[in-house]
Structures are given as C-alpha cells and as structure tokens.
Amino acid sequence: MERGGDAAGGRADAGEGGGAEFALEEKLLEKIGKELAGKCGNLALAICILGGVLRNKKSVKDWESVNENFKAVLYGAHDAMDRKIEEVVTLSYENLPYNLKPCFLSLGILREDEIIGVEELYGMWIAQGIIPNQGNDGSLMDTAELFLHELAMASIVQLVDDEIEYRPPPIGKFSTCKLHDIVRELCLKIGEKEDFGVAILEYNDGILRTITRGARQRHLAIHFRNKYEDRLPTETHPHEDVRSLRILNDAIDFQAIEFPPQSIVDFKKYKYLRELVIESFKFEGRKLPKGIIDLVLLRCLRLQSCKLDELPSSLRKLVYLETLDLRKSSISKVPDVLKKLLRLFLPPYFGEAREYCGPRLDEAVDELETLVGFNSSLHELTCTSSSKNLRQFHAEIRDHKHLIVILDAITNNWNKLKHCELEVTGNWQLTSEDELIQLFTCPKLSFLDIMVEFGKLPLSSAFISSKIVRLHFFFSKIEDDPMGILGMFPSLKELMLMPGAFVGEQMRCPASSFRSLKWLVLNGLPNLREWIVEQGAMPSLSKIYLHDCPNLKVLPDGLRCISTLKRVAVNNMPELAKRVSPGGEDFPKIHHVPLINIHED
C-alpha cells in the first residue's frame, strides 16, 4: 500500500459550489507546477523560461499540455523559445572567464542526463590539462572545485543531490553534478562552433555511427548498445588528435560485455591520449588490451566495473599516470609500481586475502591525494607519517592494529584530509571504551560503518564535537539504549541500526536530541518492543525506514510533532502495518506525512 499527497496531507479548504471547484483546480495546478519544477532540476534558466511559458496559460488542461511536452516547450526546434534559451546560454558562456570555457565544453562528452561524481570530473579536467597550476599550496583538485562552483553560480551546471538529499560530498563542497539536457545540447553546439573537438559515436548491431562530431576530434566517446558482432563497422574515425577517450557499455541489461577487437578500438593509434575511461567490459583472456601500456602520455586510466585477472607490471611505463581508478572491477593483482600516483581507487575484493596480490602502499603514498579502497587485510600502510598530501581516504579496517594506526594518522599527520570513510569489520571485538570514543570523535571522519561487536556504547562529553555524518551499525550487539548518546552527535544526518546492532527492548529519543538527523533506519531488531520519541527530538527528520522489527507494534506518539517528515516505510511488520494504514490507530500520528509505504515480504 502506498499513499501520496502534498505536505498538508491531502487537505484543501473549499467553500461550496464554485469555491470547491476552484480549490480543486488550484490544487491540480500546484501539483503540476511541482512536477515541472522538478523537471527543471533547479536550473534557474529553465525555471525562468518555464515561467514565461506558463504566464499566459490559465487552465489545468494547458498546464498539463506543457508538462507532457516539457522538452518540446523548452527546446522546440523552430520555436522562438529555442532562440531565447540559446541566447541566454550563449551569453552565460561568453561571460565566463576564459579558463572556465573548456571546463564547460568538456561536459558535452557525458551521456544525456548523466550524473558524474565530482572527483571523477576533477580528474577528467586535470588529465586533459585544462586546470592551471595556481602555484600556491592548494592542489589542482582545489582549483577544479573552485571552477565547478563558478560554473554552478552561472546556472549552466547543475549540482545534483542524490535520493538521500543531504549526503555530504566525498571531497570539498559538492558531491555530483550534471548538465541539464537542454544545456548539454547547446554545449555540444557551442563546442562544434568553436571546434572544441567533442565526438560521440554509437555502436549498435554491427554499425558504428556518428551521433555528433566536429571538424576535429580531441574528446571521443564510443557507446556500445549491445555486444560486438563479428563484422566490421561501416564507419571509421580519426585518432591522431584524440586526447580523451571513453569506451562505455550502454547495454540494456547492465552486464559486462566482451571488449571490442582491435579492428574497432586500436590503442596504438591513440598515441597522444591523456585520459582513458573503459566501463563495464570483459577483456579477452582477462588481460589488459594491447596498446594501453604504450600510451606514454596517459594521465588518467579508469577501468570501472571491468573483468580482468591482473594489471601487468609494465604499467610502470606510464610515467605520467596520476589517476588509476579500478572501482567495481574484478581484479586480483595490482602491481606494486605505483610510486607517482596522486589518486588511487582500488578494486573491491571478496575472496581470501591469500589469493590477492595488491600494492603494499608502504612506499607509494608520499604524493597520494586520494586513496579509496584500502583494505587492512590486503594492503600495507605503515609509512602514514609521509602521507601528508592525503585529502580523501576510504578504508576497510579489519584488525585492531590498523585501526589504531589509521586513527593516529588522521588525528596527527594527515592535516590536509577533507573527507574520510571507515568501515570497521572482521572477526574481532572492539571493547576499549577509550578507543570507541577516539573513533567517534576522530576529526575529518564523516562516514563510519561498525560491523564488529562492542556491546556497550560509552558516554563522553567529547561527542558534541563529533564530525560523523553517516553512522551504520551491524552485529554490534549494543545492550543499552543508544539513542540518548547518539543523539548528542551534532552533525549526524543518517543513522542505521541494522541486524544485530541492538539487542535491547526499549529506545528513547530525548527532547532536543538528533538535531541534524534526516534519515533513520531500524532494520532487523527482533527484541525491540518500545520506541519513544519525546517532543522536540529529531526536528529535521525526513525519512524513517522500519523493517523486520516484529515486536515493535506501536509508532511513537512524538512523530506527530515532526513537521519535516516526508516518508515513512514499514516492511515485514504486519501488526504495525495495520495500525499505520488509513483508519488504523497509529495513522493520525503520521497523517501529515506525504508518502507512506507499507510492504510485506
């Protein structure tokens, strides 16, 4: 069962006769208006133009027509509005500082509506050589972040929040961004006019066709809509000027497909390549394709969601390589030849540690600014005092020794660190209260997952300085009610108590606790019988997810007072589901919530 409505819970004040009809029409217009605003994606330009379109449209039918034909209305091929959008975007582009223009034009290489993480975007800009060295103590990533901010302020790049809305960025101030599809079309058009060199090709059913191409090609994307067939493409493309190459699997089933043969992609011809992105492919013989090691000018190599056995030790030939991104790839050997890297994203590994051969990282971290995917069972990281440039660090800590080393490094050595994520897991217990306090109050630690047993949550006044934004517990077997203590964390926005996290029977959220909390998940807590929310607790809460807590049969009365609540989900809890359904005893407590989801597994 799912119920949706507006923030007022579906109520409208209406008089008799025409008054009621007017109220209904006003409500429909408001609903359509919200949908249109969402489609504008907070892009000031689109909202402004849409307002002009709707100004003279009075009826619900007219507004529905605009909603159904949104893209045609805003970007009609022969419409005067087309010229207006183009004029505004062109004016915004022309008024950009000269060093921001190539940053904007490079975004035309992205897929339509593609959301790109800022760390990948910054790496792309840096690899292409369009981020200047400012000659100060800041890194190129800092300069790239400043450039993105200025593009966003000009309303031609859209900063995107994910479904959780509040999740903090992995580095700096932003998390992800995109181009509105209308602006992307104009980005490509301006780029073609200025001969920026973006070319997009599509391989489908044995045919390689051009989607867009300028007079020269410096930034090339090849999209594979299905797997390669044993026949030659009908079209070739020049290679000598290409500086950036993206080979992407856009197959509908999202499964990795066989990498195309040399007849389609011959890396020996891309001798000036600086950036190479390969996404979701299986390589022949599970080996790196021939020719990549000879791309001596390569600055950035991204092999994401790919399947191969190992990277060769000849990777050391790529002496200018600054970024190596292996996220989501299946790979069991990464050579220990990565001394000059600035940004390293290691692959996940789910097998036995003895089957993995990865970089030691004990001598290769002096220059690193980003290290993502560190696993204490697989990698050595003993020279933490030399990693003074580290700005982003994500790690899986599987033993007590590495936890102490990492916490000490974050606190005392890594002064430039902006964002840190730790997952504490493995077959061991975290029993020292002092170490738990140190963990919860560790500076720069934003995301923390604890997947080991510790039983008792310590109380410390130092928690009021905690920087943790996202906190997940699994299998922790917390015995006493943790909510009074966790409610002290001033920055906490996401809290998940997952299976085995809490073994007690009662929880109480005191008044004024959880001042910043946006999302709360209680999942797999079979002993929980009573949950109390005092008035004034969780004043910013947006979403509650309750799953498989069979003995929790009543919602807390205090939820009535949380006006910010937008969604409540109840899964696999049949007795509570009846109470929160319309007409149920607990429904009045969440009547004001726009979206209520009830599901039974």
Explain this structure:
The chain has 601 residues and is of the alpha/beta class. It has helices spanning 18-40, 44-54, 60-68, 70-74, 80-94, 101-106, 118-127, 140-153, 181-193, 400-412, 433-440, 483-486, 574-580, and strands spanning 2-3, 116-117, 158-160, 176-178, 198-204, 207-212, 219-224, 244-249, 257-258, 275-279, 281-282, 300-304, 323-325, 343-345, 370-375, 392-397, 419-424, 445-450, 470-473, 494-497, 506-509, 519-523, 530-533, 543-547, 567-571, 595-599. It folds into five domains: 2-74, no CATH class; 88-186, Winged helix-like DNA-binding domain superfamily/Winged helix DNA-binding domain (Arc Repressor Mutant, subunit A), CATH 1.10.10.10; 197-331, Leucine-rich repeat, LRR (right-handed beta-alpha superhelix); 339-428, no CATH class; 452-601, Ribonuclease Inhibitor (Leucine-rich repeat, LRR (right-handed beta-alpha superhelix)), CATH 3.80.10. Strand 5 (198-204) and strand 6 form a beta hairpin. The strands form four sheets. The protein has a 19-stranded mixed β-sheet, with helices on both faces. Strands 2-4-3 form a three-stranded antiparallel β-sheet. Helices cover 23% and strands 19% of the residues. It contains 13 helices and 26 strands. The radius of gyration is 27 Å and the shape is globular. Helix 1 (18-40) packs parallel to helix 3.
